[in-house]
Amino acid sequence: MVIIKLILKSEPSTGVNCFGAVTLHLVNLDIGPVSWRINLRNVTIIGSKGFIGSNLASYLETVGFEVWCPERGTLEIFERNLGVVVFCAGYGRCDLDPMKVLVSNASYLSEVLEKTTFSRLIYLSSTRVYMGTNNSKEDSDILTLTKDSRRLFNLTKLVAEELCSLSSKDVVVVRPSNVYGLALDSPLYLPSIVRNAVRERHVDMYVSKAYEKDYVSVDDVSRLIRQMILKNKLDYRIYNIASGENVSAADIAAVLEKGSGCNVDWHDNVTDDSFPVTSIDRICQEFDFKPRRVMDDLPKMIAEYSKEICEEEKVC
User: Fold this and answer.
1) How buried is 38 (Cβ within 10 angstroms: 0-12 exposed, 13-18 middle, 19+ buried)?
2) Is 141 exposed, middle or buried, given 0-12, 13-18 or 19+ CB atoms closer than 10 A?
3) HEC string of 136-202?
4) What pLDDT, on a 0 to 100 scale, did the predictor assign at position 315?
5) Is residue 140 in some structural domain?
6) d(Cα 254, Cα 187) in Å, to the nearest integer?
7) pLDDT surpasses 80 at 270
8) Which end of the chain has fewer beta carbons closer than 10 Å to its terminal beta carbon, N or C?
């Protein structure tokens, strides 16, 4: 005789009913109890080697998700159910390899949308699409600037967003702002200049002191994506993920100088991009989002970088 008991473990405070973990307890009168766990929270991360993708994979595994990080080009993604897909792949060096920008940001996504099986797909775009505009709400009109040297990046992101919008599947677009976090080898702007401040004691600034933009913690990005994975039905198909405030280069430089003792060299003849303050109304209302502040985290980043570099180079 076999008795099967199903225990459905729901996520608190997310309105989730269909995701979770099912534990099966089998009691056999001859051999005693046997149990195993079936994890229904399967996530596939495309672009898991990048800064955001790798942090997201680590976070989701920590909180109990079954995470698959396929190698680029593997045919297995077309042969299995991917669960929830988080598409983190992307490339922004338009001057270096424009074809890679197209493939990474849009072409590969079109294959995934058309040829794979998934329950939901979350595509990571960028708040850079708001550059030069006065409105950053998700449903506002978008401009492309002819003098923008990286307009191909924006255009390919917008093409990808349109593919998501026209899909009949459960697809959502998120637009993160400038993501920061502790990553010694990250090519992203803020980690790079913090690394230079700590390691080289020198930072070159190729923007004006008044240049400002939004910065969002990779931890906030990961937590919000987790909530989007778990919620049965999302209210919208596009979300900004940002802190909701712009921070100037001068303010960042002041913290770097104070925390690391570095010298900041401001270069002339720079052209600043212009970004509106990013609207975060949707994520605040739907997910009760309370963002971290980069000005609070910068001193901690400097301290952590110093510790990591000290351990790495064994020079303290």
Assistant:
1) exposed
2) exposed
3) CCCCCCCCCCCCCCCHHHHHHHHHHHHHHHHCCCCEEEEEECEEECCCCCCCCHHHHHHHHHHHCCE
4) 57
5) yes
6) 22
7) no
8) N
Q: What is the pLDDT of residue 296?
A: 95
As given in the structure block, the two tokens for residue 173 are 């677009």
Residue in 277, 291, 284, 290 with CA at minimum distance from that of residue 140: 277
Query: Are residues 149 and 67 located together in one domain of the fold?
Result: yes
Provide the domain count of the chain: 2
DSSP string across 228-277: HHH-SS-S-SEEEES-SSEEEHHHHHHHHHHHH--EEEE-SS------PP
Q: Which residue type is seen at 158?
A: L
Let me know how many helices (H) and strands (E) the chain has, helices first. Answer: 9, 14
pLDDT in tens, 49-66: 999 999 999 999 999 999
* CATH code, domain carrying 97: 3.40.50.720
**Both tokens of residue 111?**
């294959």
Instruction: Tell me what pLDDT residue 269 has.
Output: 66
Reported pTM: 0.84
CB 243 within 8 A of CB 214: yes
In tens, the pLDDT along 116-158 reads: 999 999 999 999 999 999 999 999 999 989 888 999 999 999 9
- Please, what is the angle between helix 294-313 and helix 189-199, to 10°? 50
Q: Are 278 and 130 in contact (CB under 8 A)?
A: yes
Distance CA 34, CA 297 (A): 47
Which comes out higher in pLDDT, residue 269 or 145? Answer: 145
Which residue is associated with the tokens 């995470």?
Answer: 67
Other beta carbons less than 10 A from residue 308's beta carbon:
15
Does residue 264 surpass a pLDDT of 70? Answer: yes
Residues 99, 23 share a domain: no
Task: State the pLDDT confidence band at 316, using cuts at 50, 70 and 90.
Answer: low
Structural domain range at position 30 = 2-39
